[in-house]
Amino acid sequence: MGDRHSSPLSWVVLYAVIAAAAAAYFAVLCEGGSSSTFVRKVECSVDMPLDSDVFAIPPGYNAPQQVHITQGDHDGKAMIVTWVTMDKPGSSKVRYGESEDDLGFSVNGKHTRYKFYNYTSGYIHNCVLANLKYDTKYYYEVGSRHTGRKFWFRTPPEVGLDIPYTFGVIGDLGQTYDSNRTLTHYQNNPKVGQTVLYVGDLSYADDYPDHDNVRWDTWGRFTERSIAYQPWIWTTGNHEIDFAPELNETMPFKPYTHRYYVPYKASGSTRPFWYSIKRASAYIIVLSSYSAYGTYTPQNNWLLEELPKVNRCETPWLIVLMHSPWYNSYDSHYMEGESMRVMFEALFVKYKVDIVFSGHVHAYERSERISNIAYNISNGQCTPVPDPSAPVYIIIGDGGNIEGLATSMKEPQPDYSAYREASFGHGIFDIKNRTHAHFGWYRNQDSYSVEADAVWFYNRVWYPVDEWIISTI
Ligand SMILES: *[C@@H]1O[C@H](CO)[C@@H](O)[C@H](O)[C@H]1NC(C)=O
Ligand SMILES: *[C@@H]1O[C@H](CO)[C@@H](O)[C@H](O)[C@H]1NC(C)=O
Ligand SMILES: *[C@@H]1O[C@H](CO)[C@@H](O)[C@H](O)[C@H]1NC(C)=O
Ligand SMILES: *[C@@H]1O[C@H](CO)[C@@H](O)[C@H](O)[C@H]1NC(C)=O
Ligand SMILES: *[C@@H]1O[C@H](CO)[C@@H](O)[C@H](O)[C@H]1NC(C)=O
Ligand SMILES: [Fe+2]
């Protein structure tokens, strides 16, 4: 619901007497979706200070820190483990096994470091644990004997049609007190996300003087409490570019690519910014809003070859992640995704993408199932229309970073926008089987189980009927 659908009758009567113009005006007001009337406390988001508990350095000389994992192959049988040692390289070995007391396997990784202006990183280790069993809990340990640190993760079930799986969806997190609330809410969500789809903009270190890369380290320590135990699937945002010619730092994505690894080669990609993975019953395509995507570019060529490979009899759910949204009705970043939409939207409709998650706009918004692909410059058909083959677009850039909420919205609410609200939160995309998935959006002000927005998704290939859009507020 929203104010648009609940105008008092007296207003209707008043407008009715003003004939055509007023009637048209009211019709426009009635068309859009709903804008939440939730009243939040207005407060700016403040980064947690360097001595915060969440940034604490683990005890012990050269102890591994910033431990994080992500899927390491195309099917879910490998995991990439990454961590940092600050004082000296130490060991790049991961010991792992199915029992906490018997880490019978081990694999040696590599380490690297980088400089950024006057900052020098620690030793960034990464290691691929391959040929794992599906749906199995593994314990793993990084670091040398005295300062070894132990964690665990569960591999996904084997890829298949009716495999339930629960994804968390987080974007634009940063490292403020609100970021910490978002992560806590995600971790305490009774739905228990098994893997995070992260839609870009990680640390916001570039908001500091000289892009102070110490804030990449603090972000790594802050998020370890989730990412050491479950994979986060990475998307590149604008805050990962770190292009700073004034500091003689002209290699885009330098800190990000040194710190966060993705299995891009496994999907035939040539750069880590666009790639795909399969996980349980989902096929996830990650695109880069900040890499070339025009015709003939590597990303464009890759996507053209990639989409026909998606076998919906194997992975019924087709999910796309990108940072900059195509359908956004906030003033913030309005139309920034337009050029990529023009390039790729017809493909998304042709291949029946179920859902597109984006970040960038620091708020939440869910679109109707619409497309805008009829336009050919001369036919004037430039308005989004309902389209059962089109994805639903969800903006979830509301992780809580230092730049604060995007509160200013386009009025009246456009038809393509089903629900929008500027509050911090996270999402859960809960796949039940080949036909049904449930999406919930959780705002930080509510208790852990409250869904501020909730929708059933019907699979576009297996059950392409109109969804009932059930908004719980
Ligand atoms: C880098 O330079 C800035 C000033 O530009 C200074 O404040 C900071 O302490 C320096 N950092 C290091 C690690 O030298
Ligand atoms: C961050 O959240 C955790 C978990 O709720 C809490 O223990 C910790 O004190 C918080 N830290 C800060 C700086 O807010
Ligand atoms: C960048 O490099 C140039 C040439 O080496 C040098 O003159 C300049 O001082 C450098 N700028 C910074 C900010 O380090
Ligand atoms: C544009 O589309 C219209 C119909 O929608 C069609 O009649 C026209 O020929 C198209 N123009 C071009 C240049 O393709
Ligand atoms: C798929 O899941 C939905 C929601 O849980 C359920 O209603 C439906 O019966 C399931 N379909 C099958 C074939 O089990
Ligand atoms: Fe962004």
What features would you describe in this structure?
The longest helix has 14 residues, at 214-227. The protein is an alpha+beta fold. Helices cover 16% and strands 26% of the residues. It has helices at residues 9-16, 19-31, 177-188, 214-227, 254-259, 298-306, 338-350, and strands at residues 34-35, 65-71, 79-85, 93-97, 105-108, 110-112, 115-116, 119-120, 123-129, 137-142, 149-154, 165-170, 195-198, 232-233, 275-279, 282-286, 317-321, 355-358, 364-367, 370-371, 385-386, 392-396, 417-421, 425-431, 436-443, 453-458. The chain has an eight-stranded mixed beta sheet, with no helix packed on it. Bound molecules: 2-acetamido-2-deoxy-beta-D-glucopyranose (5 copies) and fe (ii) ion (FE2).
Write the layout of secondary structure elements.
Layout: H1 9-16, H2 19-31, E1 34-35, E2 65-71, E3 79-85, E4 93-97, E5 105-108, E6 110-112, E7 115-116, E8 119-120, E9 123-129, E10 137-142, E11 149-154, E12 165-170, H3 177-188, E13 195-198, H4 214-227, E14 232-233, H5 254-259, E15 275-279, E16 282-286, H6 298-306, E17 317-321, H7 338-350, E18 355-358, E19 364-367, E20 370-371, E21 385-386, E22 392-396, E23 417-421, E24 425-431, E25 436-443, E26 453-458
Parallel strand pairs: 1-23, 12-13, 13-14, 16-17, 17-18, 18-22
Antiparallel strand pairs: 2-3, 3-9, 4-5, 4-10, 6-9, 7-8, 10-11, 12-24, 15-16, 19-22, 19-23, 20-21, 24-25, 25-26
The structure holds 2-acetamido-2-deoxy-beta-D-glucopyranose (NAG) (5 copies) and fe (ii) ion.
